[in-house]
Design a protein that fits this description.
It contains 15 helices and 15 strands. By secondary structure, the protein is an alpha/beta fold. The mean pLDDT is 91. Bound molecules: pyridoxal-5'-phosphate (PLP). Pyridoxal-5'-phosphate binds next to helix 7. The site of pyridoxal-5'-phosphate has 12 residues, from helix 7.
Length: 468
């Protein structure tokens, strides 16, 4: 990081944490230069960068101020209150019908699950692919079962650099995180078992439960702090829960991230009740701050946490390479994988391993995070301009989703149809719920380049929402 970027990161952190609230003047150039021991031109460059990202704005002859429309100018969504005790899951039909309508490439992709492909170094990855396939010989094919050794080494190194010590043997490479999550759940449950999941939850989690005939115990998620620990502790004393499936960082769809002390409490509950945690951490690399958040896996002394990750969101969408650090369940997961899909594509694994070694992954991530934060601010600012004033929205510390809550009269399934008819996709709230909640909520994707089309789409959405 250059010096002005470091300085900008410090100020951005103060804005995100609320130490510099919306409307507050940021330190003058002279003051900042003295306080942070940097030159005035470094301060200027840092402030230009923050202005570009939409975090601050200049006022004529007065200096720079934190943008009113960034943090907390709209209230955050209400915490989810309802827990459910063993709901049979049957939401696939709704999910499939919503997802199939999102495929039209001509719509404004606010409903998409993926950020823009332009944000990924696909050409550079292609070069790694071309380079590595030449050396794939049949003797290497025996590596297929456990996963490409260099890739596993690179992933273990990344864990180590972020403070998680993990033996390479614990890593099983899978077809995206989705396969990892499926295998983990299959390893620790039987049909009819109860699984604690989040409310709202990633819709594919609901589909997996439905497929495996498992029952959902829905634990409310706070829009900023994540899983409600009291509700979880209460459910554990009353119900024979066999596994947890949670996201401790940048939860989909709410964007919530648990604080370190909450992760420690959660881990204490796992150990006390000896219930395994399937930790879905696919957005781990998309944090905006300067420090990566730790997963619950970093606390795991007894192998109860199965930590699932993926390159789909951070590097190589479509390559379908993910993994699980399976703790005490590693061997079972590996065997189950052998019985089902055997292995992800070896060329894809080799290409990613080469890119991690030589392609400049950290540089790419740095740029990706900056771009996503800029686009999040642009969408928040547009929402503040065009959506009704009783709209609530979260402000996640990473990723590319925003969760909007409207008054109860706004029916998000109807809104979905009306918006789609106007060429705008959105994701309606009920597909994130085993018990069909969140009917007045939507998730929007801000992972695509912000332009006039996005701005016009937000204005049109605002008019449709106001018509309810
Ligand atoms: C929360 C969450 N978990 C898992 C996945 C699946 O990841 P992958 O594409 O690596 O299978 C996604 C993708 O949308 C996701 O949002």
């Amino acid at each position: 990081m250059k010096r002005y970027e470091q300085f900008a990161a410090v100020i951005a952190e103060k804005i995100r944490s609320g130490l510099l609230p919306p409307g507050q003047k940021v330190p003058s150039v002279r003051m900042a230069s003295q306080t942070y021991s940097v030159s005035p031109s470094t301060v200027f460059q840092g402030y230009y960068l923050l202005e570009d990202r939409g975090l601050i704005q200049a006022r004529p002859r007065s200096g720079y101020y934190v943008r009113e429309t960034t943090a907390r100018s709209m209230d955050e969504p209400n915490p989810v209150q309802r827990a459910s005790d063993g709901t049979e899951v049957g939401v696939s039909e709704l999910i499939f019908s919503v997802l199939s309508s999102l495929k039209d490439p001509n719509t404004v992709p606010f409903g998409s699950a993926f950020p823009s492909p332009d944000l990924y170094p696909l050409a550079r990855l292609g070069r790694s692919m071309a380079k590595t396939v030449r050396y794939l010989d049949s003797s290497r094919l025996s590596d297929m079962t456990t996963g490409h050794p260099e890739l596993r080494r690179q992933i273990a190194l990344r864990y180590m650099n972020s403070g998680v010590r993990l033996p390479m043997d614990e890593l099983v490479i899978t077809n995206g995180a989705m396969e990892a999550l499926n295998l983990c759940l299959q390893c620790v449950t039987q049909p009819g078992d109860l699984v604690a999941i989040e409310a709202p939850a990633f819709y594919a989690c609901l589909q997996v439960l439905e497929r495996l005939k498992l029952k959902a115990v829905e634990i409310p998620v706070h829009p900023r702090d994540g899983v409600n620990q009291m509700a979880l502790a209460d459910a554990l004393t009353r119900l024979p829960i066999k596994a947890f499936w949670f996201m401790s960082n940048l939860q989909n769809p709410l964007g919530a991230s648990m604080k370190d002390h909450a992760k420690a409490t959660l881990y204490g509950l796992l150990e006390q009740h000896q219930v395994p945690l399937i930790e879905d951490d696919v957005y781990a690399e998309l944090y905006y701050g300067t420090k990566p958040p730790h997963p619950v896996k970093s606390l795991d002394r007894s192998g109860l946490v199965m930590h699932c990750g993926s390159f789909s969101k951070s590097l190589a969408p479509g390559y379908r390479v993910g993994w699980v650090a399976g703790g005490r369940y590693t061997q079972q997961i590996d065997r189950l994988k052998l019985m089902t899909t055997l292995s992800p594509s070896l060329p894809a694994q080799a290409a990613i391993a080469d890119y991690l070694q030589y392609g400049g992954y950290d540089r790419h991530l740095h740029k990706l995070r900056d771009t996503l934060e800029t686009q999040q601010n642009a969408m928040l600012a547009a929402a503040a301009r065009y959506f009704p004033c009783d709209t609530r929205v979260n402000q996640p510390l990473g990723g590319y989703f925003l969760w909007f809550e409207f008054p109860e009269r706004v029916d998000s399934l109807k809104l979905f149809e009306l918006a789609l008819a106007q060429g705008i996709s959105i994701t309606p709230g009920p597909i994130f719920s085993a018990s069909h909640q969140h009917r007045h909520c939507i998730r929007l994707n801000c992972g695509h380049r912000w332009d006039k089309r996005s701005e016009d789409a937000m204005a049109l959405l605002g008019r449709i929402i106001a018509s309810f």
